[in-house]
Amino acid sequence: MIGIDIGGANLKIIDGAGVHIHYCPLWQGAPLAELLKQYAGNPAAVVMSGELADCFASKMDGIRWIVEAVQEVLPGAVFYGTDAAFHTRPIPALAAANWLASADYLRGDYADAVLLDVGSTTADVIPLNRFEDLRGLTDTRRLQEQYLVYTGMLRTNVATLVSSVTLDGIVTPVSTEYFAASADAHLVLGHISPEDYTAPAPDDGEKTSEAALRRLARVVCADLDEIGRDGALAVAREFWDVQRTLIARAVEQAVSRSGAGRVITAGIGADLFARELGGVTLYEEIGEVSDALPAYAVREVALRRSGGD
């Protein structure tokens, strides 16, 4: 059996050969069925969050499209929902259930933990000892509960988190254009490598430290030679300070409410946030499959039990 996690930007698959991550921007008409053809012939368990892509008029439109695209190639696929059950047809419960699949898989062995899964776009904060309370939550409810923090390691517009930065002691408002992404900040701060920068750059340019610094300078409507490396780095540091604070506060609240004794981290931000929060990475526990945790989790949950409707 293979596990599949279909996001708005990335398609993640776990099979016997390991982890496969394909850039698959649904809002740009990415050929999901075509990408899945290489996995045809396998039974599959699927989770999704890509139904929220703005190419779909509604989440149900997105769910239907995704289910049909998967079933075109993998007709026996089952889909995990926020009701913690598997289904074979499009229903509202399939929307954004990937985080719950992770919780379902981990809750037995890690009931004393809060899971923080920081991906390219979002951070999921999941108290693993509150599974029954988590069941049925929509993304809107998770935002309200601070179980979903809508910022990630690669795709967040820097200007969505900072309204101004301090340059040479002067508070400087930022442009709200999409000049620089979180990947640019994390690259120049040494949190990720150029190889980790898998999302397109805002200007479709190079994914080097120099190019990232140029993009960060644009956030304050400057060229790099106007504010220098120190100025561009100041933009990156102030973004990171805000992002770290947002995520850390959500984790602290989940720990306090759940009584959890530790934090475990997954996703592209696992190492960084394990250091920041004094946690342990899931990679240390289960290896490279933690890089595509929902895909791995939904496969393992499906193998544990059968379901469908």
Automatic annotation (TrEMBL):
Superkingdom of origin organism: Archaea
Domain Hydantoinase A/oxoprolinase, chain residue ranges per copy: 45-269
InterPro entries assigned to the protein according to its UniProt record, in alphabetical order: Hydantoinase_A (IPR002821), MfnF (IPR002756)
Pfam families: Hydantoinase_A (PF01968)
UniProt name for this protein: H4MPT-linked C1 transfer pathway protein
